[in-house]
Amino acid sequence: NSRGASALLKDSIPIAEFSASGLFEGHDLLRRGFTSVKNELLPSHPLELSEKNFQLNQDKTNFDTLRNIQGLHAPLKLQMEFRAVKQVQRLPFLHSSNIALDTLRGNDECISFEDILNDPSQSEVMGEPHMMMEYKLGLL
């Protein structure tokens, strides 16, 4: 009955692993950049996850407070506005300031770390415009 077991194993292996874009494909440096071991490690400090999710936690707290004060419609309307503003951005090779999102959150009059030390001219993400646009449109 070993032949039946091998037939079951053969049928359970996905075909995508054997294609050119599957398991045996090389790492695409143009699209994904260099691999980094740091990205695959667990957080080194207990507060690191809390700091990464700070804005998400703050939004959740604000939505809960708004729901308790004004009712269910207020946080739903604000979430729809957030979603609409996040979709509108510049071309992929240009830095987007997200000023509308900052205005909705009330951060438009605050000077933060990102305003001073997040200079787009020193960004490492700048790439070849035609390649990035074709990738975003799904042509590559």
UniProtKB/TrEMBL annotation:
<dbReference type="GO" id="GO:0005634">
    <property type="term" value="C:nucleus"/>
</dbReference>
<comment type="similarity">
    <text>Belongs to the POMP/UMP1 family.</text>
</comment>
<keyword id="KW-0143">Chaperone</keyword>
<dbReference type="InterPro" id="IPR008012">
    <property type="entry name" value="Ump1"/>
</dbReference>
<protein>
    <submittedName>
        <fullName>POMP protein</fullName>
    </submittedName>
</protein>
<dbReference type="GO" id="GO:0005737">
    <property type="term" value="C:cytoplasm"/>
</dbReference>
<dbReference type="GO" id="GO:0043248">
    <property type="term" value="P:proteasome assembly"/>
</dbReference>
<dbReference type="Pfam" id="PF05348">
    <property type="entry name" value="UMP1"/>
</dbReference>
